[in-house]
Design a protein that fits this description.
By secondary structure, this protein is an alpha+beta fold. It contains 13 helices and ten strands. Helix 5 runs antiparallel to helix 6 and helix 8 (233-250) crosses helix 10.
Length: 314
């Protein structure tokens, strides 16, 4: 398979050859920001999304990230703060576990900055943290401070490596995470598969459909999705509907007015508010002037079937 290019306005993007599960990457740069994605090895794809190496060469930088799944981030250099959509501001610990976010989250960095991060799917969240995900929604914790040894040791080892050692950094991180994951019971895997499929449904997923598929009451579903995904079903449906629409606007060039009609929104004002809340940009901004991080985050979708469907959109 030869390497090829994809076009994102204002970005330089390269999709290198696939030479194995730890070397398939998507790399891009936009201004002072560089981002390189690594698909997880096959045995960890049910637990984690992509691993990424993010760097900013500027002394100060601010941007926003879309609503997302939880993230484990190792601050290799620099520091910063998260500004959550409810107005809460929290400094970034060196081993940062960011809970699931239910709105666009701004961040401000003092750099230059280097970050190695990993997206956590619900099974990965259970393995690394284990508590109800809704308790850390739009919040963060110092995972190294809470859980100690292995995370702090990994941070020290990663800091001693350079960006041209990126594949070795990824290999080292996946090896540690592979030792920490814990298999779930079949009933839990079945539930997660059902919820994922429901969230990826086009249009506006209805909770009645999920209840019928799983055989659970709406109250039971709310408790379980809070635990694994960080929010009740209706909020999750809104979040992933906005994520799907934003990707189709920014990457596929689809008309946001047409998506508004297809997606079950009340009207165009409602559509604009939802996209702005979950993505941090209006539909027009996504089409004409997406921020550097908005552009580069969307490139996760280019990892294709090497990452979980849920992680391609979030």
């Amino acid at each position: 398979m030869g390497s090829h290019q994809i076009a994102i306005p204002g970005s330089t993007v390269a999709l290198p050859d696939e030479r194995g599960p730890l070397s398939y990457t998507v790399a891009a740069a936009q201004g002072p920001v560089r981002l390189r994605y690594f698909a997880p090895p096959e045995n960890l794809r049910a637990y984690f999304g992509s691993l990424y190496l993010f760097s900013v060469s500027a002394d100060h930088y601010a941007d926003a990230t879309r609503a997302d799944v939880p993230q484990l981030r190792f601050m290799l250099a620099g520091q910063g703060d998260y500004h959550f959509h409810d107005g809460t501001i929290m400094p970034t610990p060196q081993t940062c576990l960011l809970g699931p976010t239910m709105g666009a989250t701004r961040f401000a960095l003092d750099g230059p900055v280097r970050v190695l991060g990993i997206s956590l799917l619900p099974a990965g969240w259970v393995s690394l943290h284990g508590e109800d995900a809704s308790r850390l929604a739009d919040r963060l914790c110092d995972l190294g401070g809470e859980r100690g040894g292995a995370y702090i040791d990994l941070l020290d080892r990663l800091r001693a490596m350079e960006d041209n050692d990126a594949e070795e950094m990824a290999d080292l991180t996946w090896t540690l995470l592979g030792r920490l994951v814990q298999p779930l019971r079949k009933a839990n895997w079945d539930l997660l598969a059902a919820v994922d499929a429901w969230l990826m449904d086009e249009g506006s997923p209805r909770i009645e459909v999920l209840a019928e598929t799983t055989g659970l009451s709406q109250r039971q579903l709310a408790r379980l999705t809070n635990k694994y995904y960080g929010a009740p079903p209706k909020l999750l449906a809104r979040k992933y509907r906005a994520l799907r629409c934003s990707a189709r606007i920014a990457l596929d060039g689809e008309s946001w007015q047409q998506l508004c009609e297809e997606g079950g929104f009340y009207d165009q004002s409602h559509f604009i508010r939802e996209i702005k809340h979950f993505i941090g940009l209006t539909p027009h901004q996504l089409q004409t002037e997406p921020s550097a991080v908005a552009q580069l985050t969307l490139l996760r979708r280019s990892l294709g079937t090497d990452v979980a469907v849920l992680n391609r959109l979030s």
